[in-house]
Design a protein that fits this description.
The protein has one domain. Helices cover about 40% and strands about 5% of the residues. It is built from ten helices and four strands, in the order H-H-H-H-H-E-E-H-H-E-H-H-H-E. Strands 1-2 form a two-stranded antiparallel sheet. Helix 4 packs antiparallel against helix 5.
Length: about 260
């Protein structure tokens, strides 16, 4: 049955790609941690991250704007190197994480650094549906990347890897993702977020968690384990198995330095 489901998903994603959706190939018996020879060069994005993003994930957007041409050049590079069947799963995953994060930074800079990403207008008032970057010959939105590709991978740690330019988001890593460092950075992002001030685990019986764990609970519990079990995998301070969970308000203020 699992084989049938995986094959169906692979066919579905291939069909979507042929109809103008972003390409992603789910192959049976492969994992995202399988690192093959890197085919893409993310060094320009890595250099920008190291220059303008601090260790807390906050961005110096004002200074970053002076390097907007370099960011555009990187996005053009991604556009010209659209994933296909020659890409390993790890390479594809790294590609789309970097694409999401770089496009988000570009969106902020291109809209004169608003106080919140939600201040940027888009279709139906939702900036995530705004199609503003090109891959190949088609325009896509952040939602296309997140919902159309990344969340279909069945890897909940992606929620700690992509950044929505807001204070309550998981931090923007100041290292670009690659096929080689993917597993390490996914794990690092999960541990940092769970143990950050985006959650309050001080009361083991009544922890206060990020709304991300509420909005995407099914992603964290899809394997059959409880949300608490998943969080305790990364938490320095463990939550009681029968804890009563509350969720913190989400702060959409810009993650600027």
């Amino acid at each position: 049955m699992r084989s049938i489901i995986v094959l169906f998903l692979a066919f579905s994603l291939w069909s979507c790609a042929s109809n103008g959706e972003l390409y992603f190939d789910l192959e049976e018996n492969t994992t995202i941690s399988e690192a093959t020879a890197t085919t893409l060069d993310h060094s320009s994005w890595d250099a920008l991250l190291k220059k303008y993003v601090d260790n807390k994930g906050n961005v110096n957007y004002t200074a970053f704007k002076s390097d907007l041409p370099k960011l555009k050049s990187y996005l053009n590079y991604l556009s010209d190197n659209e994933p296909d069947k020659s890409f390993s799963k790890a390479e594809q995953f790294a590609y789309y994480i970097n694409l999401y994060n770089a496009a988000t930074v570009f969106l902020i800079l291109d809209n004169d650094i608003p106080e919140s990403i939600k201040d940027i207008s888009g279709p139906f008032g939702q900036v995530w549906l705004k199609k503003f970057f090109t891959i190949g010959k088609k325009k896509y939105s952040l939602n296309n990347v997140e919902k159309g590709v990344l969340l279909k991978m069945g890897e909940p740690r992606v929620h700690f890897a992509i950044n929505c330019a807001s204070y309550s988001c998981p931090k923007l890593q100041n290292t670009a993702f690659t096929a080689g460092n993917l597993e390490k950075l996914l794990d690092k992002g999960a541990r940092e977020f769970v143990n950050s001030d985006k959650n309050d685990l001080s009361d083991a019986n009544n922890p206060k968690l990020s709304k991300i764990f509420d909005w995407y609970k099914s992603d964290f519990t899809d394997s059959g384990e409880s949300l608490i079990t998943y969080i305790n995998r990364y938490a320095s301070t463990k939550i009681a198995s029968d804890a009563s969970i509350d969720y913190l308000d989400y702060n959409w203020s810009l993650n600027k330095q």
